[in-house]
Design goal:
Blueprint (H helix, E strand, L loop, with lengths): L3 H15 L49 E5 L18 H9 L24 E5 L4 H6 L5 H13 L8 E4 L13 H18 L3 E5 L1 H8 L5 H4 L3 E4 L2 E6 L2 H6 L4 H13 L3
Parallel strand pairs: 1-5, 2-3, 2-4, 4-6
Antiparallel strand pairs: 5-6
Helix pairs in contact: 1-4
């Protein structure tokens, strides 16, 4: 099986074979997909637990973008409640709340919380599932072998890691790196939603099924969610495989490359 370095080299080689700057289109984005534009017509906003609806498909023709998918607008926090998360004024404030959080059982065995890292003006937000062993030891997201591969994937679309905000759905490591359980996600996801509200990125890259299903409030599989432009509170969401999955199955390298190129095209 190819290791992370081999996969990253293949990503960069694909970019060179395409020539020039393949991820930046000379044509302007269509109005329905231009970052910051008025959202296209869509179904009514979903509420947690509701069955996901789908927007109208993107206009057929020569559009370089896939069709529109799920549009999910979770309700904002109550400003008059005692919950400090919806009122957190900054990313640092959220990190402090995460560090003191004991809302679920994941706090019991953690060494460090992993709130996320990146610039306040990041145009791209990468969302994964949860911290692993190295992340728990360091307090940083996407480090270790999968993190190295993510860094190379970003480089292949002409973005450095320090230009991107990188985080996870849950901020503490699940035991043995298992999938986060529903109650753990429910306790932690307000931190993620508030981070996105503060960042206001142009694009969200959901890496892995847990990230995609959480952001879009759906139980659809990752495969069913790919090749569409979804929206979270009006922000385009592109769904792709987690770097750790690429280390297990290099056959997913090519579809991941296709996905991240779409995400890059949506960045102004």
């Amino acid at each position: 099986m190819s290791n992370g370095r081999d996969l990253a080299r293949e990503f960069l080689e694909q970019q060179r074979q395409l020539g020039g700057s393949p991820v930046i289109l000379p044509d302007p984005l269509t109005p329905s997909l231009r970052p910051g534009s008025v959202n296209p017509p869509r179904t009514a906003a979903l509420t947690p637990g509701a069955s996901p609806g789908k927007t109208q498909s993107a206009a057929a023709g020569d559009s370089p973008f896939p069709p529109a998918g799920i549009s999910y607008d979770p309700p904002g926090g109550d400003l008059f409640s005692n919950d400090p998360v919806p009122q957190a004024p900054s990313l640092d404030a959220i990190a402090q709340l995460v560090a003191a959080c004991t809302k679920c059982r994941l706090c019991e065995a953690r060494r460090h919380t992993v709130p996320g890292e990146g610039p306040r003006d990041a145009r791209l937000v990468v969302v994964g599932e949860g911290p692993g062993r190295v992340e728990d030891e360091t307090g940083r997201p996407f480090v270790g072998q999968a993190g190295e591969l993510l860094t190379k994937i970003l480089a292949a679309i002409e973005l450095s890691r320090d230009q991107v905000f990188i985080c996870n759905v849950v901020k503490c490591r699940p035991p043995e790196n298992r999938v986060p359980q529903y109650d753990e996600i429910a306790a932690c996801v307000p931190y993620l939603f508030r981070q996105i509200d503060l960042l206001k990125p142009q694009v969200i890259l959901a890496m892995g099924g847990t990230a995609a299903q959480t952001l879009l409030n759906t139980k659809q599989s990752l495969g069913a969610l790919r090749n569409q432009i979804h929206r979270f509170r009006g922000i385009p969401v592109i769904v792709t495989y987690h770097p750790a999955a690429l280390l297990r199955n290099p056959n997913w390298k090519k579809p991941t490359w296709d996905d991240v190129r779409i995400a890059r095209r949506l960045i102004a």
